[in-house]
Design brief:
This protein is mainly alpha-helical. It has one domain (50-281): Orthogonal Bundle (MetI-like fold), CATH 1.10.3720.10. 79% of the residues lie in helices and 0% in strands. The longest helix has 42 residues, at 240-281. The chain is globular, with a radius of gyration of 24 Å.
Length: 282
């Protein structure tokens, strides 16, 4: 009986991984297919890199990619700044007037349907344009503001969770030794919560890069992001250049995840080594 159980778990795990990653592997394989039919493999001329070459000359794809990277970068940076402030207020300031409303407003975008968020932001931008004349038109600015509005919540939750298990004795020791609160934050608190800030930044960047529903509500003419362009292409039928583009995105994301994981592991090992050395000297 125990042998059966030991075999069922790996088998179920393997089936789950195949269900998740086999479509991605097939997409990568067919990106090298010479045929324009994405489900028919051309055994005579394949593999080929011509679809990747076409991407380099597709002005629509390149413009959308540049726009998406710019919006995602600004969104992630602003979300980290605002989300860190909200996370600190919820984790450090105890009970204060308006704390319940701040907590509710922070978590609301996490459970709000995207179509409701996109529609409400569209109505907000239209009302502001009629009242004060800003924004003059919907485009990259409105998309960035819309992405910041929901990315802040994710950063705040990550930072608040990190601060919940924070060792306050380190900050207290620095204050006792004469450090100012700003110095304690810069030299003690900030380095210790850096992994949470990096995770929040990467999460915000990914959410902004991946968003389609909200972006379609607040985007204007000439401001289509890369996911919007891909979605419009897929509705007309999947083409091999879309497979090539998806393969590049998968490779980029995988490299970012592996790089950030290695950096965090290296940082944790260095921190553990410094802690052991300090304990040995003490």
């Amino acid at each position: 009986m125990s042998t059966r159980r030991s075999l069922v778990l790996p088998a179920a795990l393997g089936v789950g991984y195949l269900f998740l990653y086999l479509p991605i592997v097939s997409l990568i394989v067919f990106s090298f297919n010479a045929s324009r039919l994405v489900t028919v493999w051309d055994a005579v001329h394949s593999p080929t890199l011509k679809w990747y070459g076409q991407l380099l000359h597709d002005d629509q794809i390149l413009a959308a990619a540049r726009l998406s990277v710019g919006i995602a970068t600004v969104n992630a940076t602003a979300a980290v700044i605002l989300g860190t402030a909200a996370g600190f207020a919820l984790a450090r300031f105890g009970r204060f007037r308006g704390r319940g409303m701040l907590a509710a407003l922070t978590t609301a975008p996490l459970v709000m349907p995207e179509i409701i968020t996109g529609l409400s932001l569209l109505l907000l931008f239209i009302s502001l344009q009629q009242l004060i004349g800003w924004p003059a038109r919907r485009g990259a600015t409105t998309i960035t503001l819309a992405h910041i509005s929901f990315s802040v919540s994710y950063v705040a939750i990550v930072v608040q969770a990190r601060l919940a298990g924070f060792d306050h004795s380190l900050e207290e020791a620095a204050l006792d030794l004469g450090a100012r609160p700003a110095q304690v934050f810069r030299r003690i608190t900030l380095p210790l919560i850096a992994p949470a800030l990096l995770s929040g930044w990467l999460l915000s960047f990914t959410l902004s890069w991946d968003d389609v529903v909200i972006s379609q509500f607040v985007a204007g003419p000439g401001s289509s992001t890369l996911p919007m362009v891909i979605f419009s292409k897929v509705r007309l039928g999947v083409s091999p250049d879309v497979n090539a583009l998806a393969t590049l995105l998968i490779t980029w994301v995988a490299a970012g995840v592996v790089g950030s994981t290695l950096w965090l592991q290296r940082r944790e090992r260095r921190r553990s080594r410094e802690t052991r050395l300090a304990q040995a000297e003490g």
